[in-house]
């Protein structure tokens, strides 16, 4: 990670009231070293794992990282635990890790792939998450096909047009 900064923080409950999750508050000096409020996406290192996350605004100023339960399990961390965190600006902020089912569906349908690429990084990440979060392979495949079909037909990926 280029221009990485290390700090120690506690994994705390938090996040938007409609979506309680685990958070890591980024100290003001660390945020300043990352470029201040212009830093939006970061690569975070915890326990030897690398996570791509967004810096989200705190009420009253500052920023925090939202870490979902699956990421906490994968990294081996729990609420209340103190963490040694390394953070750096994401060199590819619009990068999206595609689940295999979605990558395969988009590769098979060029019109859908082109439509997918026209969306912002945040929208593409949301589409990838919709497919990836399904527990069963059949559900992931069905979601990938439905999403790809909607994109190819020029429909919004999430709305019931």
UniProtKB/TrEMBL annotation:
InterPro entries: AF2212/PG0164-like_sf (IPR037079), DUF1905 (IPR015018). Pfam families: DUF1905, OmdA. SUPFAM superfamilies: AF2212/PG0164-like. Gene3D superfamilies: AF2212/PG0164-like (2.40.30.100). It comes from the Bacteria. This is DUF1905 domain-containing protein.
């Amino acid at each position: 990670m280029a221009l990485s900064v290390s700090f120690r923080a506690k994994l705390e409950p938090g996040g938007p009231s409609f979506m309680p999750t685990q958070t890591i508050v980024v100290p003001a000096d660390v945020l300043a070293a990352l470029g201040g409020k212009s830093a939006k996406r970061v690569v975070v290192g915890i326990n030897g794992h690398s996570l791509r996350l967004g810096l989200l605004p705190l009420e009253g100023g500052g920023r925090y990282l939202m870490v979902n339960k699956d990421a906490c399990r994968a990294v081996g961390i729990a609420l209340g635990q103190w963490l040694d965190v390394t953070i750096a600006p994401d060199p590819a902020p619009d990068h999206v890790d595609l689940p295999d089912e979605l990558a395969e569906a988009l590769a098979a349908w060029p019109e859908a792939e082109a439509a997918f690429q026209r969306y912002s990084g945040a929208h593409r990440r949301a589409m990838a998450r919709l497919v990836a979060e399904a527990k069963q392979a059949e559900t992931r495949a069905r979601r990938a096909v439905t999403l790809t079909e909607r994109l190819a037909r020029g429909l919004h990926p999430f709305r019931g047009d």
